[in-house]
Amino acid sequence: MSLNIAKNNKKRAVIVGGGFGGLKLANKLKKSGFQVVLIDKNNYHQFPPLIYQVASAGMEPTSISFPFRKIFQHRKDFYFRMAEVRVIFPEKNMIQTSIGKAEYDYLVLAAGTTTNFFGNKHIEEEAMPMKNVSEAMGLRNALLANLERALTCSTKQEQQELLNIVIVGGGATGIEVAGILSEMKRFVLPNDYPDMPSSLMHIYLIEAGPRLLAGMSEDSSLHAEKFLREMGVNILLNKRVIDYRDHKVILEDGTEIATRTFIWVSGVTGVTIGNMNPSLIGRGGRIKVDQFNRVEGMDNVFAIGDQCIQSTDESYPNGHPQLAQVAIQQGELLAKNLIRLEKGQEMKPFHYRNLGSMATVGRNRAVAEFSKVKMQGWLAWVMWLVVHLRSILGVRNKVVVLLNWIWNYFTYDQSMRMIVYARKAKEIRDREKVEATTHLGQDLLSEDQ
Amino acid sequence: MSLNIAKNNKKRAVIVGGGFGGLKLANKLKKSGFQVVLIDKNNYHQFPPLIYQVASAGMEPTSISFPFRKIFQHRKDFYFRMAEVRVIFPEKNMIQTSIGKAEYDYLVLAAGTTTNFFGNKHIEEEAMPMKNVSEAMGLRNALLANLERALTCSTKQEQQELLNIVIVGGGATGIEVAGILSEMKRFVLPNDYPDMPSSLMHIYLIEAGPRLLAGMSEDSSLHAEKFLREMGVNILLNKRVIDYRDHKVILEDGTEIATRTFIWVSGVTGVTIGNMNPSLIGRGGRIKVDQFNRVEGMDNVFAIGDQCIQSTDESYPNGHPQLAQVAIQQGELLAKNLIRLEKGQEMKPFHYRNLGSMATVGRNRAVAEFSKVKMQGWLAWVMWLVVHLRSILGVRNKVVVLLNWIWNYFTYDQSMRMIVYARKAKEIRDREKVEATTHLGQDLLSEDQ
Q: What ipTM score was computed for the predicted complex, to two decimals?
């Protein structure tokens, strides 16, 4: 098995990951003279800022994602392959993926991050992460099933576990999901479950650090905290979660909080590639790169976006924040730099233009900060809506998301409250078993290309 | 564990299944003086006529379904419980469900049908049914994954298996899915997979009987067949599928068709309740009922819709066709009859008013027949759209479905081509294991109610 892409006389740029960075890079390499190969484990680009709305039953996965093949329809010299990259062989300019191997002239790693459980296998098994639409759909289904179960379970203890929601991690995702679930508690629960007082539901937001939204200003942190407290969220700061046992979240200070809805959005770590030398990996599991996003010690291997850490930008000696804008700007510059390289020109170093950051807590409530301006409340919320609507790919998705928002705003309703799991066909289960047993680099031993 | 519904001084009507029949019945019992309990294994009503559009990536599950709790918001004396009914104890007026037991004064079985594999366990394991949104999402994911795989698999043989699609069953669902997949082959495949000739894909529609759409007139059958042949579908009539082995569908005459997309829409059988006496079950696994939809030999147990068979209607001595309209009309009449019973009045017998039937083959192509009129082509197609749009529950869904249709019509695109499986949380997996081991009637042995 191979990726089955004919080599032509063009240089081949293989991009691993079609998030904000990889997608921008692939777009900017249009008509550049490169053969572009995009590899992603999903067949679609997803829009992480709205994943929490999928989890809360306000948005469909298909409204915030876009199939790669559709994005790149009619694009010449472009190939998409759905696969996971397992191993890189820099000396052979070759990668091994779950569906075979492929050669490259330039390799760009843009696979982003995965949820960080800080080595706690037990929490990893029990907690619900929310890093992609698949996990968000799983969380939606679990939330709704827990509410149904709470009506009919045998004991008050179990009912309390089913109704309590614990969110670990006070970053943007944590406050966004806490906010939207508190709205669900207030506006949906009393109507859907009239025989179950919504006051029984308690929402906890636990943060190990001293404040929410550590990546933003103290002012924004305080506003977000104030908004959430007004909305009835129990905020615990400076509290570290160390375990989850018998349907209880255990804090370092011994406190226990009963819950069966244990949401983990406490941090991320760079996606790892099987054989990468540990010396190349920096803080947060991120691949160390130079000012041109080149992986240290390699000529033609690059990393961009959340997956890399670059400490050459004067204003960001500890690396850039892991934000969409960094990935987009790095993808944009790298496209130019690859073209320059081919022309025998010098590459240009990366400098991040900070376009600001924002987070939304609920209807009419958000915090936003730009280079000189800070905003809170309604205006920040409108800004948030506009910025995110503009960023979503595709006219159809923009329309659908906007209509959803308008509908949800006026009805106070998260209307997609169906518990649906796609039935996995035997053909697919069989194939996954085979792929899972494809060992690292195994294929390279065989003769076939 | 119990269903946890307080008994009051009202008579309790328990309805099992919230499809067309059960939902109509529950609606018509509003303000009737009954306490209504609706039990369904899903927390939403679904709209079967559009499930094939979910499978073909043209529609979201949430656009063609509606949460029961939302339908019945603010309804007095109404209870929804998500559960499966396992056993009926008529002498105790009690049912045992997956979440405990409940008493009833009247019990109405409206659980519909399930896919009929005619006892072939092997086909049951390998084939993809398409009876609900979960299966439709599974089929969508498998279809898309097979196309991705076809690009990179090792052999021409495997590629052909991945590209061939075999649909078994020439009823309305079979022709609808054959039609929409042939449109996908024509309009989507060449754009999404420019390096894979769409002529490699072959779509087979296999029917054991002598014609398609056996439930409609010969005229409609011939038109449907003609439309599908024009669209490039290979139609095999009078061919019986007996097995699926080594990625091949095996016909009775020895013919083998290679495929890894083996869709089974060949028939249905009534949903079975654990301890029901076989003498009560008629043709097609349907529960035998009298002219009032009362289960034979029981006073206060009824069955309506696809799950029952009624041979007392003069024009339908072999039972009614399994259509939405029959279920709706039976639900409507049964509501009146239950109210009559409570008033000490005689019940009225059921007579089906045939409002016609229709099936769509593709854009601008459908067949429809009403008592005196038969239509084909564009006019029938428009009728089909209007009738189905009117029948979908909820303003939001109507708007979303209409916009989707308009979008798909003008773009020739089934745009939801993302492969997404909801990640199943450990809490839910654990609970399912426990429920699966709840034996039939086990709870009744214990003392707790």
A: 0.93
